[in-house]
Amino acid sequence: xxxxxxxxxITRHDVILAEAGADDGAGKVISLAQxxxxxxxxxxxxxxxxxxxxxxxxxxxxxxxxxxDCAGDSSxxxxxxxxxxxxxxxxxxxxxxxEKLVYLTEPLxxxxxxxxxxxxxxxxxxxxxxxxxxxxxxxxxxxxxxxNQSINTTKEIMARNIETLLERGETLEELDERAxxxxxxxxxFRKRAEQVxxxxxxxxxxxGLLIGTAVTAGVAVITVPxxxxxx
Length: 231
Fold this sequence. Notes:
Strand content: 15-25%
Order of helices and strands: EEHEEEHHHHHHH
Oligomer: single chain
Mean pLDDT: 76
Domain V-SNARE coiled-coil homology: 143-203
CATH topology: Beta-Lactamase
Shape: globular
Pfam family, one: Synaptobrevin
Number of domains: 1
Structural class: alpha+beta
CATH superfamily: Longin domain
Low-confidence stretches: 68-74, 189-221
GO cellular component, one term: membrane
CATH class: Alpha Beta
Strand order of the largest sheet: 2-1-5-4-3
Protein name: V-SNARE coiled-coil homology domain-containing protein
GO biological process, one term: vesicle-mediated transport
Helix content: 40-55%
């Protein structure tokens, strides 16, 4: 039986680009994952639980002004990073796993055609093995797999998400009243925290990407099957 993170996925709007994981045999993981995919997106974290499992999502709105989304219009792309973990994993470790995925995929989300315009499971063959490897890494490394500077960085992303949505004419109330951090973020919106050191962040991201690429190359013959994308 798997312990730690049992399922994860990266989604562009409602299109699952890559996922990895396995059900528990009782349908709980699949059911929770499907419910998570139906939740209304927020500018930050979203949580959903079932007995024995906790699901977490983090949303990132594409802020590139000079790019169009896959529909060819000027609306920004919404990236959703999701995972489900059992009770053996702390919430902070689960969040850190998603934060690391945000860092690792940033250059891919910015420049890769398949990521920005690909259809269902377009990145499964290339990123599925890496996703599986990162899930297993959390299981055997525990808190050592956590990223640094996570709080400031994710708050900065959430602040930009709020700014993006407000620019589109949406009110904070329309975003999602269930997002408990929104009120705090809106009050602090004009008081931006100091910028995270870009050089160090990119060094960490590139280092992780190189490690993941090496592992993926070594297991290139392994196919990671999707769990819910084709249901």
